[in-house]
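Technical annex, item 7. During the second reporting period the consortium partners agreed on a shared format for inverse folding records so that results from different sites could be compared directly. Each record opens with the tokenized structure and is followed by the designed sequence. A conforming record, contributed by the partner at site C, is shown below for reference.
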């Protein structure tokens, strides 16, 4: 009996054996329990990363930064302060060019038509010297080039007048179904408001000179590149980043202009001479960029179309206002925004395929 009792397993041994069998037959933990999250979750963070980058470089300004980007192939849009109104400054000249080229498309204006400037509107710099000569004119094609590549204010105001005035430019934009972009002034009167003066008569140079002598703050804002806060809060001559992008997309899609005029517009914008450290500042050498800048005290803008290595393109608008840190930091904001968007959209095809398989819409 003693021998048989020793041969039988104890209750403890039986319990241990069952436990071992239970571990053997239990399902193994999934691989996800030990590895990274599923790949789709990683892909979905791309948007959050882009927006976080927008927030990061926006901190370079003590003012307000707005960014809008749109993939021209998929239509995907990402933005920061996309519906906030910003002073366009010279970025409004993109709308002026569209209105002028629409007149060319309609046959009521020719590119070789010669136009003159009202001497009373002639502002400092650029081709202002030409208008001291009676009867001085330039062809529309050259005025467009000066306006878009060198941001010449005098060339712009010749074109604004021929366009039918600021309201005609605004009506052209609204006719494209775009809301949130308005043009209320030619450049001379835009600068008057930026300086905070309201002259009744005299030339621009006379009025601006008298205002600077009478109000030291105007000169101080110029020297220190400080914003006029009253001007920043004025809704006139403003646009949201999303609305400006819509205008660019209307051009690119052929909705606004005939193919020849669209090609001319982007060809000229592709030779822009201003703001070389803005949208283009951090992009790979040779990246095609067709853009237009805008600058005022405390304001820095750049808007345009950027090409990717595979031939795709995206629209981008970067607006900065109420900034007192200077143009260097504003240029860095625009350059970093363009590079972040470039990298984001560069990998969009793979990302788009993965998201479509999951029926996820962005």
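Designed sequence (site C submission):
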């Amino acid at each position: 009996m003693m021998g048989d009792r020793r041969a039988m397993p104890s209750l403890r041994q039986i319990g241990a054996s069952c436990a071992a069998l239970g571990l053997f037959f239990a399902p193994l933990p999934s691989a996800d329990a030990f590895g990274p999250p599923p790949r789709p979750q990683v892909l979905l963070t791309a948007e959050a990363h882009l927006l976080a980058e927008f927030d990061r470089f926006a901190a370079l300004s003590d003012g307000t930064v707005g960014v809008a980007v749109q993939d021209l192939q998929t239509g995907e849009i990402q933005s920061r302060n996309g519906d906030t109104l910003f002073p366009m400054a010279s970025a409004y000249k993109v709308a002026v060019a569209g209105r002028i080229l629409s007149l060319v498309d309609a046959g009521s204006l020719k590119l070789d038509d010669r136009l003159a400037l009202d001497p009373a509107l002639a502002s400092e710099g650029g081709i202002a010297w030409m208008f001291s000569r009676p009867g001085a004119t330039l062809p529309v094609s050259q005025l467009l080039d000066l306006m878009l590549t060198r941001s010449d204010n005098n060339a712009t105001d010749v074109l604004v007048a021929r366009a039918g005035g600021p309201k005609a430019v605004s009506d052209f934009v609204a006719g494209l179904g775009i809301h949130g972009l308005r043009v209320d002034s030619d450049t001379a009167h835009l600068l008057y408001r930026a300086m905070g003066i309201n002259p009744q008569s005299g030339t621009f140079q006379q009025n601006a000179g008298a205002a600077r002598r009478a109000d030291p703050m105007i000169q101080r804002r110029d020297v220190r590149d400080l914003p006029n806060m009253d001007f920043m809060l004025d809704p006139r001559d403003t646009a949201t980043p999303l609305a400006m992008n819509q205008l660019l997309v209307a051009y690119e899609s052929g909705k606004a202009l005939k193919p020849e005029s669209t090609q001319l517009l982007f060809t000229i914008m592709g030779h822009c001479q201003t703001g070389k450290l803005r949208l283009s500042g951090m992009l790979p050498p040779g990246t095609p960029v067709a853009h237009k800048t805008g600058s005022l005290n405390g304001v820095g803008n750049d808007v345009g179309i950027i090409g990717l290595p595979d031939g795709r393109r995206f629209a981008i608008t970067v607006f900065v206002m109420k900034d007192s840190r200077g143009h260097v930091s504003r240029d860095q904001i625009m350059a970093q925004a363009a590079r972040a968007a470039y990298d984001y959209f560069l990998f969009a095809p793979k990302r788009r395929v993965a998201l479509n398989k999951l029926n996820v819409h962005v």
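The chain has a mean pLDDT of 87. The domain at 39-357 is CATH 3.40.710.10 (Beta-lactamase). All partners now use this format for quarterly exchanges.
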